[in-house]
Every structure is written in structure tokens, then in C-alpha cells.
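Sanity check. The docking grid for magnesium ion depends on where the pocket ends up, so I'm generating a full predicted complex first rather than guessing from homology. Inputs follow.
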Amino acid sequence: MFNSLQKEVNQFIDRGLDRSLRLAVTGLSRSGKTAFITSLINQLLHINRADNSHLPLFDAARNHRILGVKRIAQQDLSVPRFDYERNLAELMQNPPHFPQSTRGVSETRLAIRYERQSGLMRYLKETGTLYLDIFDYPGEWLLDLPLLELDYQQWSQGLSALFSPHRQALAQNWLNKVATLDLTAVANEDVLAEIAQDYTDYLQACKAQGLHFIQPGRFVLPAELEGAPALQFFPLLQLTEEQWKQLKNTASSNSYFSVLEKRYEYYRNKIVKKFYQDYFAHFDRQVILADCLTPLNHSRQAFEDMQEGLTQLFKNFHYGKRHLLSRLFSPRIDKLMFIATKADHITTDQLPNLMSLMRHLVQKGGSYVEFEGIETEYSAIAAIRATQQVNVTQHGQKFKAIQGVRSSDLQRVTLFPGSVPMNIPNETFWQQNKFEFDQFEPQRLEQGEIIPHLRMDTVLQFLLGDKLD
Ligand SMILES: Nc1nc2c(ncn2[C@@H]2O[C@H](COP(=O)(O)OP(=O)(O)OP(=O)(O)O)[C@@H](O)[C@H]2O)c(=O)[nH]1
Ligand SMILES: [Mg+2]
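Predicted complex below; grid placement will be based on this.
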């Protein structure tokens, strides 16, 4: 009798304490989103009541208050499930691989059952469940969000301002064709398709050079929209203000100019807006991942390009305190974490520099002002740690080095990867220093083994800690 009563009361309390949290994992392509989500799921699934030594800085795990974590059915049944099992299987192969680049949207839901810290009634053990929703998507698609606020002319002019000589060289073929196009002539579908393909080739060339700021991002990863007219348009970079005005007033509705404008508007209103509404409009918390190390290998342009991409990104999220009332009408992000990924490429003494670099990257854009009032933190992590740190002595000097299987030649190497600049490098720095952060292959994971990481526990503590009280 008492047992069943207690059970009922427990269930009642459980239901009352259920909470859910939607986490936005954002970042440009190759910044490490899929690796991050895979590791986050893996770290959580391995929490038990006996040994949580893999997450020493995550209080709820260290204090054994988490009763169990499970993957459960997600809410939106029309979205593919995040393929955690496949990503894990990749790491278990011989030789192991990192998860593949993402080609579409997927999502996952975790239920974290925990023991409450301060019970209302001492003789009842209060438990609660935190439902955590995360989704994954190709980084390129994120770059289209700024289009939401720009019409065709504004978009074209914005790109024109960013069109460096370097980009111009990559775009020559496309530019030549646009130059011969009479924008007032009746549009020919085939010609549009061809020039749009040239524009897409230019975007692909940018990507290959480490330039991540490419729009529309969907052009390089169209998924089910491959070949659709909605993706057959391009910006007009060379028009003067006067020419824009004239074309808007005089071009007939079947002209190249009008068709391009209509397709852009369709793309913005139907495709980009839907993506935003379906996935980004209702977040509670956000992490912004950035790989600050790889662009250092490429060029100053690649680095500045990443900075531009990040700055554009912030504009599309609503930051601010989440009051109950405003929460009902417009959800707000109340915690934000900037994470420099792949920190296993450097020695631990360089971590403060990496975090400082990340901070400067964010703050230089000036957008940080918008984050006032929200809890913001900066961190550097490795979601899937591929290297080990060792101490080496050379010519009587001791220093830290990293050891791992280098991707370029699959050799096991021990090396000192160099110093990370504390601030955004200036011109002389680019001339004098050559960064060479090598890529490493992941370590092979045995069945049941936990993915090795660096500081994922600090991330979990910041994002989930207060929700598991
Ligand atoms: N050493 C190391 N490399 C990492 C780590 N995380 C990601 N990488 C590397 O970065 C690459 C990209 O990581 P992903 O997780 O696929 O990046 P993403 O943001 O999901 O990329 P898209 O799906 O293309 O948008 C991986 O293939 C690895 O080479 C990490 O923690 N350590
Ligand atoms: Mg991915």
C-alpha cells in the first residue's frame, strides 16, 4: 500500500520536475560539430553511479547524482536520427576514422535522469529528468541565415564589398560570363543554369582554399534540392546604385534581372526561412564552435574569412535574459559558450593562448555587445582527442610535445606543434611565422571504451550543471 503510494507520489514529482533543453550546436563547416555531438552523447551515456572519472569537472556526475542517461525517441519524427552508432563504428574501425562530413539534418534526444539536490520532502527521494535535444546539420547551411534580412540588392552589394582580389581570381570564369549577360533580355533557363554552375564552382574553389565564407552555402551541398531552379541564381556584383534603380524600374518580369531576383527571394523566403524556423528559432542555449588552428595554416585571408563568417552568424540569434514572460512569446538564449575545437593539436601550455585568440576573434567583430546580460564563457576543447601529450628532453632541455598518427603520411610522430598567437595575428606575424598544425588520425576505440576527450566536462558543467540541481 505505502509502496504503491510512494510510487505514485514519485511519478507525480517526476513529472513536475521534468525539464527540457534545446541546445544549438553552431559552427562553420569542418569546425567540429559532428565530432562534438558524438563525444557529448558518448560522455553522457557512460555516466553511471560508480565511476565517472572521465568527467571530473561535471559536478552532477562526480557527485553520482545522475542515475542514468538514455537516447530516446526524438519529437520530430520527420527528421533523420543523428547517426551516433555509425560515428562510433567509424572510430572502432581498423584503422579508425573521424565521422564523415555532414550532408543533411539529423537530430537526437537524450533523457538524463538525476537525483534532486534539495528535496522538498526529505523522506522521499526526488528525481527528475532532463530532456536534451540536439541536432546536427552541414555547416555551410548556417551561412545562409544572414540572407533572411537582406534583399537581392543588399545581398549582392554586401558580397561585392567582401570581394577580395583573391576571390576575384577564383571567380574569373563566372565573372566573364556574367559580364556578357544582357540583364534586360528575356531569360534563358539553360543559360542561367550554366552560369549558376560556374558560380557554384567558384564557391567550391573558395572552400578548397580554406575560405569558409561562401553564400549561398546550400549551393555546395544541395541535398534534395540538387538541380532545382531555386538554386540557379547568383549575385550581381558589378552594378552601380544607379544601374540597380534602373533595372528595378525597367526590366520586364521575364528578364534575366527579374528572374534572378525572384529566385533569390524564393530561396530566402522558402528555403532559408524554413531552415531557420524549423531548427534555430527555439533554442535555449548555444555553443559556437570554431576551429582557429586550421585557418592559421592557410592564410591571413582564410583567417579573416572565418572571422567574417562568425560575425555574420551572431546576427541571427536573439540573445538576452530568458524571463518567463518573454520566454512564452519569444524564446531566448540564456547561455552562450564559444569553444575553440581540436585543442589536442597543441600542447596544454598553449590552451590559454588558444582561448585568448578565440576571445579576440569574437570581440573584434564588436558583436559581443549583444551578449551583454547572458552568461557567456570561452573554452578550448578536444571532443575526440587524437593525440597524447608527452614530455621530451632535447639538448638538455625539457619541453611538452604531442604524439599521434599524422594524417598526411600516417606516421606515428612526436612533435612540438608551435605556439598559438594570443591575439589576432598582424601582417608582420603572417610574414614571419609559418604555422603548421598537423592533422591527426583518431585513436582506435575499443568496444565499450569511452571516447578520449579534453575538457568536455567543463562544457557539460556550463551547459547542463544548473539544470541538474
Ligand atoms: N584532432 C581532432 N580533430 C578533430 C576534432 N574534432 C574534429 N576534428 C577534425 O575536424 C574534422 C571536421 O569535424 P566534424 O565534426 O566533421 O566537423 P563539422 O562541423 O561537423 O563539419 P560539417 O559537417 O562539414 O559542417 C574531422 O574530420 C577531424 O579531422 C578533435 O576533437 N580533435
Ligand atoms: Mg558535421
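Relevant for the grid: The radius of gyration is 25 Å.
Also worth noting: Residues 27, 29-35, 98-99, 101-102, 138-139, 341-342, 344-345, 382-384, 386, 439-440 surround guanosine-5'-triphosphate (ligand 1) (CB under 6 Å).
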